Amino acid sequence: MAKAIIVLIVLLAIVLAIRFVFQKSLNREAVDNNAQEQIIGGDKDEGGCLVGAGYSWCELKQKCLRIWEEPCIDSGVQSRVEAYLKEHISELSPEKEVLGGKFYITQFHFIDDQHVDVDYEDGHIALSASVLFTVDGEEVTIQKFSLTSSNGSSPENAGNSNIAIVELTRLFAAKYQADPSNIVIQINDDRGTYLRGNVKFSLDEQATGGYFLARMVNGQYEIVVDGNGQIDCALVTDFPSDMVQDCSVR
Fold this sequence. Notes:
This protein is of the alpha+beta class. The protein has helices spanning 2-40, 75-92, 155-176; strands spanning 56-58, 63-65, 104-110, 115-121, 126-136, 139-150, 184-190, 194-200, 210-217, 220-227.
């Protein structure tokens, strides 16, 4: 009888110890959550969503959400807009495909039920646009299609950048006896007369490429240097210094 009582006491002590540890863990989690909320910021919108964490109230879905993770738009409307833009992106774009490429959309970013940002390319040039749309039943109408960037350039320089891409593609194809349809040019810094960017000789997104520096002489582009190693400062003495600050003296 005494042994049974001792065993019972031991079991009870174990249960109480487990309960204590579990309760302490819950209290710590509550404190951590509260601290995290204070770090993020306690401001909430009219729907009770934590603004500091990037949440906003979506009346349509009746919940808090981050619009870059889940847009506040009906899924059916979203699907119709995406399908329409995929089908009509070439005719909507103020910039046209180059070197025989065909535009395709790489990313949608819905802001709300009337605005979406799209990224698209043709394998040679990459562009971004802001789109204003309306949906009436099954019919999608594009109210405004505004180019926001082209290969890292502003809309004002997009046309010049695309001309440069065409010319540089031709030059690289001639220099390396490569198929121009497989050459991908990315302009990262466009100073008009001077250009810097990356070049790949494959349409594979995982393929590696190299840098290039080019300039315009007498109205014609020329490749000054390209590769994967250090840039020889002696070859780029006339380039803006902040454009080639990573060059090395040999």
